[in-house]
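Teaching assistant here, posting this on the class forum so everyone can see the example we discussed in section. The complex has three components, and the goal was to see what a joint structure prediction looks like when all of them are supplied at once.
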Amino acid sequence: MSTFISSPHTLFTNNVTRIMLLVVAALIPGIAAHIYFFGIGIVINSIICIVTALLCEAGMLKLRDRPLWPFLTDGSAIVTALLIAIGLPSLFPMWLAIIATAFAIIIAKHLYGGLGNNPFNPAMVGYVLLLIAFPKDMTLWLAPHAAGPAVDFVSTLQFNILGQLPVIAHFDAITMATPLDTVKTELGTGLTVSQIVTNHPHLADAMFGKGWDIINLLFLLGGIGLLYKRVITWRIPVSMLITIAIFASIAYASNNTLHASPLFHLLGGATMLGAFFIATDPVTASTTPRGQLIYGCGIGIFTYLIRNYGSYPDGVAFAVLLMNLAAPTIDYYTRPRVFGHHPGTSS
Amino acid sequence: MSIPRKLWRIHGGLHLPGHKAESMQQPITDAPVPPELILPLQQHIGNVATPIVNVGDRVLKNQIIARAEGYVSVPIHASSSGTVIAIEPRVIPHPSHLTDTCIVIATDGKDEATPVAAVLSDYRQMDPAELRNRIRDAGIVGLGGAGFPAFIKLNPGPQLKIHTLILNGAECEPYITCDAMLMQEQPRAILDGLRIMQHALHAQRCIIGIEDNKPAALQALQAALHTDEHTLIEIVAVPTLYPAGGEKQLIKTLTGLEVPSHQLPASVGVICHNVATAYSIAQAISHQQPLIERIVTVAGPAIPKACNYRVRLGTPMKYLIEHTGASPSLPARLIMGGPMMGFAINDLQTPVIKTTNCLLALTSQELPKTQFELPCIRCGECARACPAQLLPQQLFWHAHAKDFDKIQDFNLFDCIECGCCSYVCPSHIPLVQYYRFAKTEIWAKEREKSKSDIARQRHEFHLQRLERKKREDEERKRKKKEMLDKVTQTDSAADAKKAAIAAALQRAQAKKATQASPQNVEHLSEQQRQQIDEIDKRRANPSTVASQPGKDNES
Amino acid sequence: MLAAILALAILAIIFGLLLGYGAIKFKVEGDPVVDQIDAILPQTQCGQCTFAGCRPYAEAIAKGEADINQCPPGGETVILALADLLGRDPKPLNAEHGTHGEKTVVIIDEQVCIGCTLCIQACPVDAILGAAKHMHTVIKSECTGCNLCIPPCPVDCIHIVPVGTTLQTWTWPSPRDEHVHSA
């Protein structure tokens, strides 16, 4: 206790753990949909990632001579682990999930100074590591529930932990590319959007890619919950989603045979997860009001560009990391006008 | 009720639990005169007052016991009759818990006042300058918290035209109700004070801003308003949003004018005074009553019966708290002021002074457990809450790194220390303390800088002086030598020289005879006297005298 | 081969001329480094750095004859500022020159002073008032706390007193220095 106590003399109304737990809670609807469409794998992956994250966190705190308890209970490692796990296919080797999580916590978080000091979103760093180093494993998504056989719990466990293939079938028979991947690949071969949809009837099912749309809608729901709880502000998600929508609409309007519809982009891949849970990570995002608009916009632009012109089917992770890089500069140039200062005269 | 009018929004702010009802159950009660009054010489912003009484003097109530020193200063009056028993350092209400010179009066219980001079009491016939002098002589300072001499704020100077006079009755901090109660009970006197200030400033309009959680105060003032005054004086309810009562925030809310950074409200034609200041001004002008008491809210969970008291300045807090029936021991935290901006008091003998608006006694339940401070996660809650639209986390970052240049780039000095950022911080970082640390440290650095600049100048001057002396000595030697050379050429001159030497010797002897003896030797021991004699002998010995100083330091 | 060497040589000459021209044309008129160093030094003029004052020490640093960690009154703050200015690595204060302590001034015990004027001569900032055979006094606000007046005093009537904290000089402590802090 210090001798000189500064005001305010009040109880705290908020804490980091509460924020992180609310984020976890808001992820639950999306995760539930994930389980429904892709099986129990995400739960196994989540547990593996969370355990890894907490162990790495504890180890690094010990090495850095920081107190364990306040940091292990702040919940930030759990959020990082969950965000990695959600991005992984259900059937996914355990050791890769461990590598990604360990990389995220050790390299991307603690080597940069731990909570609050990491310039890059640790979850996305871990995730991109997998995308770049193990691209094949990252594309082996199970076919959504209704389109193919879901793999049962035991088989998933066996594959994820022991590396044994499920007994039911050959891998190719049960996995399929994600809708974003399919559209991208097939557009690349010169097909039109309508031809692709004809070839892949499940893309026409429901709205835009069976399962993915529902998952995205539920992440949107969770995101609205976070907005309601004032854990995040509207600026980053809204500007990101509007940017994607505008780009996709322009492309779609100019040539709807070569470009998928805006809704396909909004409800496909990691759009909603990215907009409400990844881009809004306060540590790595822009903090000024105008800066957040620019930041969200930037992520939207990069996401759309990578999806359409890059070599990866989805671009949210890369887009977030690219804008992480720009956030300090954006903040510097978008400082709000201080009370009593004329616009333009910053100091 | 008040007329609906356009109000402007301020950025940020917080909706805080008010805790005001507790201390508004009873009317303002007179606190008795304590046996001992402790009156600090500095109860205001500006120069410390100079005591004009001596220990042992009998003083009467209302008597000036310390006069104002310089322009930015006000006198201090005895709050009751009695005897000055000490003028010494005592703990004063300040976040540093330091002591400062206080005049201590042992009261005699007679409460005998100085006779009231029969002077003009109609302000309408007084010149603004005379009004200001009377307000100054009454020792009136801003009673809202800062304690800036009130008369200065009634003297904006000839080049600034004041169009709006604002009376601040917002009282936005939780628990504090002294202004609210005063408005309820003394609306007429407050309006009188406002009219006096309006007369002194020639303001075209007056606005009384009151948070809308004080309907009784709004009603009382409205009812006390003369029917023909509605065009001149507006009573406006402002939304309850901490810190609506911040001076610059209230001006923005009521007029839409933003006081430029580092400037006073007068620069935009507005003057803002607290309602309690207006009341004191009315007392001073209409009743020749100097500022010797004020309303203090004594509240908080450690106080069984919260209430507003009319307290004599200088009353030890212990006496006041005991009077409320609370335990006479120090509560878990005793705060002077409100929970958001007040500071902790850790000595119950600390006196109530002109700026003591509230004594808040908290139990350990209302205080944060000493919690670990997590790193900033840049969530931006602080920036959303900041009424000055600063970037608190950037300020924190630079204060933490002690980068005092950068922190000023982020406008540290526009921070009003309202505490909103600390209140919402999920990492529980004592942000306001970081800013206070940075501000006081920057001031300290500036003081050191100017001190070292002076030292440099003085040292350079010192070196120049030594140089000059050396030159002059050489010059003198040279001249003397020239003269000697000339003199030796003629005998008559040689005689003259001998005569001159003899005269010089005589002079020296005469001087030796009358030489001043060392000072302060009367009380010295034999040994020390011997030492001094030795020193004198050494001094008389030419070989050591060579390094003896000249006497030009006298100049 | 020859053409390449020639081309490079010509390029080198052109760029050299350009740079030379630029250096003259856009010469930055800044404080000479000695002034900048002197501005950082605390101006105590105490000579603990072994130089005759702050300016001689500044000159010695500029010439590379003295290290940046020889100023006890300045302490860590001055060392860091000098390291920053000169682009050198900060190092701890050299204990040979003294230790950094609380700011002090001296006072003369006027009951003991015999008026010898030796201290007046020693004071580097002329902060002592007095005349021969009359007691002396220190102008507290001008005293730099160099303590140079103490050794010459024959009756040891000069005492070191801490400046102390007043309401005007008190500063809030940094929370960072107070509790365990992370990051």
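For the discussion questions: The two ends of chain C are 58 Å apart (CA to CA). The first strand of chain C starts at residue 104 and ends at 108. Think about how each of these relates to the inputs above.
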